[in-house]
């Protein structure tokens, strides 16, 4: 069996998730799900941030060895989260950008989603009636197939994710994300510090029941990630443009502050979660 170095006989995970027809079906479903997510939220309007996140994501995807065509979008939401959809689509919340303290931490979030795509965790199951499946898109988009702080858990997700165990899939994505960071020249410890921030702010903490019951606690993932880092080779760190990241981070934080003042609310981690912004009409098609 062809394997990745250091992955204990695990098949190469590069996003090869089926034949051309299945990939085309996944793309169609994924595009519809992203459109639905945009219709239920607020796409980030600034081109600079969208271009920056997509460029960063593409660089990480190349470092991961992915054979998928990936596309990255930004949704205004102060919660730290990102979501991977069928067809290679990734939507990252502005909260992940505003909460990250370095480009490496944001890269850790994106790498986690790339890992889900490469492992085919959000690939749709074969269906004879694609129209029937597309009818479920509004519900599927709301619960999200996979993400760094997963908000899914209903039975509707079952046709979307191929992972038998969501917990195992999340641990695998955390491990692969750390490997991708090393390959891209980032300090993999950024994955640990970002998970620690998720734990501190309560994102992705499941209770004993409910939607997140099958998702690992951030504290468990943090412990697992520390074990992963102990087995990784020392990274050859590459200089990255932190100044650009700081500009993007400031843009998000400034917008948060303006909205918080206008709505008389505080930001996540500093008391109540913001209410949703007014919806924009969804775009007719993705670029």
What this model shows, in words?
The protein is an alpha+beta fold and 287 residues long. The chain has one domain (20-247). It is built from 10 helices and 5 strands. The chain has a 5-stranded mixed sheet, sandwiched between helices. A hairpin with a 3-residue loop joins strand 3 and strand 4 (89-93). Helix 1 (20-39) crosses helix 6 (137-143), helix 4 crosses helix 7 (166-183) and helix 8 runs antiparallel to helix 9 (218-231). It is globular. The protein starts with 19 loop residues before the first helix and ends in a 24-residue tail after the last helix. Residues 1-9, 139-145, 148-164, 204-214 and 269-283 have low confidence and may be disordered.
Gist of the model:
With 287 residues, this protein is an alpha+beta fold. The protein is 48% helix and 7% strand.
Domain module count? 1
Report low-confidence residues grouped into runs of 5 or more: 1-9, 139-145, 148-164, 204-214, 269-283
What strand line-up does the widest sheet have?
1-2-4-3-5
Q: Would you tell me the overall average pLDDT?
A: 75
Dominant shape: globular
* Rg, Cα atoms, Å: 18 Å
Beginning-to-end CA distance, first to last residue:
38 Å
Overall strand count: 5
Strand content: 5-15%
Largest sheet: 5 strands, mixed
Helical residues, percent: 40-55%
The SSE order reads HEHEEEHHHHEHHHH
Task: Decide which structural class fits the backbone.
Answer: alpha+beta
Number of helices: 10
């Amino acid at each position: 069996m062809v394997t990745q170095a250091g992955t204990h006989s695990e098949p190469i995970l590069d996003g090869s998730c089926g034949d051309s027809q299945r990939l085309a079906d996944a793309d169609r479903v994924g595009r519809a799900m992203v459109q639905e997510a945009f219709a239920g939220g607020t796409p980030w309007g600034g081109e600079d941030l969208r271009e920056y996140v997509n460029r960063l994501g593409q660089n990480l995807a190349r470092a991961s060895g992915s054979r998928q065509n990936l596309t990255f979008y930004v949704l205004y939401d102060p919660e730290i989260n990102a979501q991977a959809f069928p067809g290679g689509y990734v939507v990252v919340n502005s909260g992940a950008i505003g909460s990250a303290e370095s480009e490496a931490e944001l890269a850790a979030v994106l790498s986690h989603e790339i890992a889900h795509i490469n492992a085919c965790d959000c690939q749709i199951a074969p269906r004879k009636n694609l129209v029937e499946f597309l009818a479920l898109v509004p519900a599927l988009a709301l619960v999200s197939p996979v993400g760094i702080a997963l908000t899914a858990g209903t039975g509707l997700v079952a046709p979307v994710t191929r992972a038998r165990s969501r917990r195992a899939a999340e641990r695998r994505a955390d491990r692969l994300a750390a490997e991708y960071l090393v390959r891209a020249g980032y300090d993999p410890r950024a994955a640990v510090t970002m998970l620690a921030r998720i734990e501190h702010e309560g994102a992705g903490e499941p209770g004993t029941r409910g939607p997140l019951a099958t998702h690992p606690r951030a504290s468990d993932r943090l412990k697992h990630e520390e074990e992963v880092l102990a087995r990784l080779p020392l990274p050859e760190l590459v200089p990255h443009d932190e100044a650009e990241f700081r500009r993007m981070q400031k843009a998000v934080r400034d917008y948060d502050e303006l909205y918080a003042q206008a709505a008389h609310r505080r930001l996540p981690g500093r008391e109540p979660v913001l209410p949703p912004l007014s919806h924009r009409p969804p775009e007719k098609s993705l670029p």
